[in-house]
């Protein structure tokens, strides 16, 4: 947090980072490796399709 010179920059970053992190975050310890990889690939594909529009 000390890297941000202004509070406004920190707020902008946090506003974007939180939803992205929540969308892509997978609890690795709660699933098997194949399921984790499938879920991760699906999440990234969805995120890329959202970004392409």
Order of helices and strands: HH
The beta-strand count equals 0
* Cα gyration radius (Å): 15 Å
Instruction: Please identify the structural class as seen in this structure.
Output: mainly alpha
Which overall shape is indicated by the principal axes computed on the Cα atoms? elongated
- Average of the residue pLDDT scores: 79
Distance between the termini: 31 Å
Total of DSSP H or I helical runs spanning 4+ residues: 2
Report the major sheet. Answer: none
Q: Determine the strand fraction and express it as a percent band.
A: under 5%
Helix fraction, binned, reads over 70%
Spans of at least 5 consecutive residues with low confidence: none
Account of the protein in words:
It is a single chain. This protein has 53 residues and is mainly α. The chain contains 2 helices and no strands.
Helix and strand topology:
Layout (H helix, E strand, L loop, with lengths): L6 H18 L8 H20 L1
Kindly list the characteristics that best describe this protein.
53 residues, mainly alpha, 0% strand
Short description:
The chain has 53 residues and is mainly alpha-helical. It has helices at 7-24, 33-52.
